[in-house]
Design a protein that fits this description.
Layout lengths: L2 E6 L6 H13 L4 E6 L4 H9 L2 E4 L8 H15 L3 E5 L1 H14 L3 E5 L11 H17 L2 E4 L2 H9 L8 E3 L12 H10 L7 E6 L8 H13 L4 E6 L5 H10 L6 E5 L4 H7 L2 E4 L9 H7 L4 E4 L14 E4 L4 H12 L2 H15 L4 H22 L1
Parallel strand pairs: 1-2, 1-4, 2-3, 4-5, 5-6, 6-7, 8-9, 8-11, 9-10, 11-12, 12-13
Helix pairs in contact: 1-2, 1-14, 3-4, 4-5, 7-10, 8-12, 11-13
């Protein structure tokens, strides 16, 4: 069996780790699979449970970085992988440099977290350009998760040289909760059957623009409709968003439920899913919402547009247009038949992102690169 190593610089709770775990569950047994990671979180724990070789290197903080990078080089020299798969911004730049130094024959960079979306000052723009340029230049293939990401690289004249491929994120349809789980969520949180429940599952971070959602919800509330907004998630802006909701007078129609272990259970329990993010690489939330048969109202932003069709599985709204966002929510709140129709169409669309189908495309890419190693040897 050919040896394949996955490298991610920080093993932590989040969507990126969830996606990597889906990869490993699908094809780890196909190769002699190893995972090298910084930190020690859910990815390492899952690897131990699945019997996958995992190695922790001290690369998850800036202070540890020089020592961790040397340790990474030592491990790559020792293990001599046939293929090195690099996940995320810092995993891509650090891993591709280490892989080049140690002579790894084939490297693939999966751009889970495109850095360009945080180019809001000169320092970040330069740093992000360098961090993305290194893996794109050094790796044999670059995987981008959607057309919007690809366009961001093209704008910056990156040296793709025909090495790029677009492969989306995926969802495990087996994780969609059964009806009893929906009833449990509604009962636990006192959700009334005669109320339309709008759910947002999101980190409370600058990127997610929950402030826009709250401003939209003030418009919805002022219309006097029988609906409630539930925000599921935690983050650095949690206190600030609570204060904003209070300032807007939303206490009676909006509630924060904090971070939850299984956000998809709340999507399944919802009547409508709301997503006010400013940018994503390739968001899984609308995919999961569609798999649950729920219509989506979302900002027409990178990493969301293309996931579903405006007016079919939900509505796409220009970012920052809080009035139109509110109107789209009000349309769905007032039209149960439309919610049902869009939800049914979403279930069909979700099949496109089924993990087995998407990950088979990744396996085909890996096998193609590994075949090149065989020919060289």
């Amino acid at each position: 069996m050919q040896k394949v190593i996955h490298f991610v610089h920080h093993d932590q709770i989040g969507g990126g780790t969830t996606v990597i775990l889906q990869h490993l569950k699908h094809y780890a047994a196909r190769y002699d699979t190893w995972v090298i990671h910084g930190g020690d979180g859910p990815l390492a724990q899952a690897c131990r449970e699945m019997g996958i070789h995992e190695i922790s290197v001290s690369i998850d903080t800036k202070l540890k970085l020089p020592f961790g990078f040397i340790s990474l080089i030592v491990w790559l020299r020792r293990l001599q992988p046939d293929l090195l798969i690099l996940h995320g911004q810092w995993g891509g730049s650090l891993g591709s440099l280490a892989g080049s130094v140690t002579g790894v024959p084939r490297m693939i960079y999966i751009a889970h977290w495109v850095a360009f979306y945080t180019d809001w000052d000169v320092f970040r723009a330069i740093r992000n350009y360098i961090a993305e340029w290194i893996p794109v230049r050094l790796c044999h293939r670059t995987v981008l998760l959607c057309a919007s990401n690809y366009y961001q690289y093209l704008l910056r004249h990156f040296p793709f040289e025909g090495k790029q491929v677009i492969l989306s994120n995926m969802i495990d349809l087996g994780r969609v909760p059964e009806p009893p789980a929906t009833e449990t969520i509604r009962r636990q949180h006192g959700w009334q059957p005669d109320v339309v429940h709008v759910v947002c599952v999101s980190r409370l971070a600058t990127q997610k623009r929950i402030d826009w959602l709250l401003q939209s919800w003030r418009i919805v509330q002022d219309r006097g409709v029988n609906a409630r907004l539930w925000i599921v998630g935690g983050g650095e802006l949690e206190s600030e968003m609570h204060k904003l909701a209070h300032t807007l007078g939303l206490e009676k129609s909006c509630a924060f439920l904090g971070a939850q272990a299984n956000g998809i259970e709340f999507l399944q329990a919802a009547d409508i899913v709301a997503m006010s993010t400013l940018y994503e690489t390739n968001s899984v939330v609308p995919m999961e919402a569609m798999a649950c048969g729920r219509p989506v109202v979302a900002n027409d932003s990178d990493g969301v547009r293309g996931t579903f069709t405006d007016g079919r599985e939900g509505f796409l709204v220009p970012p920052a247009d809080t009035a139109q966002f509110a109107e789209r929510l009000l349309t769905l709140i007032g039209d149960p038949a439309l919610r049902q129709k869009m939800g049914a169409q979403g279930k069909v669309r979700a099949q496109y992102y089924a993990a087995d189908k998407v990950l088979d495309r990744y396996v085909a890419l890996y096998d193609q690169e590994l075949a090149s190693v065989t020919r060289i040897s």
